[in-house]
Write a structure and sequence with these properties.
mainly alpha; about 90 residues; single chain; elongated
């Protein structure tokens, strides 16, 4: 995937998004997944990139939304695991 962002800028955004994601998740795999999702979203909407005034703001908005969605999914999974554990594993 090659966005029309010069390599030095693309690498800068990658590092910033990864650092932000890693500081939020504190988990390398989740941070890498978030970064991949950010750049996949950018690639899907690449036609709109010409209209942007602030690419960095767009990138971090996408990143924030991906992180929020991921954390929400984790909270739901944790809730369901707790319910399952209470119902089926603590019947002793």
């Amino acid at each position: 995937m090659h966005l029309r962002i010069p390599n030095t800028r693309r690498e800068k955004y990658y590092r910033k998004v990864y650092a932000f994601s890693l500081s939020t998740f504190r988990n390398k795999e989740d941070a890498e997944e978030a970064v991949q999702d950010v750049f996949n979203n950018l690639w899907k909407d690449r036609a709109k990139l010409k209209e942007l005034n602030d690419l960095e703001a767009c990138i971090f908005t996408i990143c924030f939304n991906i992180i929020r969605k991921h954390l929400r999914r984790l909270a739901i999974e944790k809730k369901h695991l707790k319910i399952f554990t209470e119902r089926y594993l603590d019947m002793g």
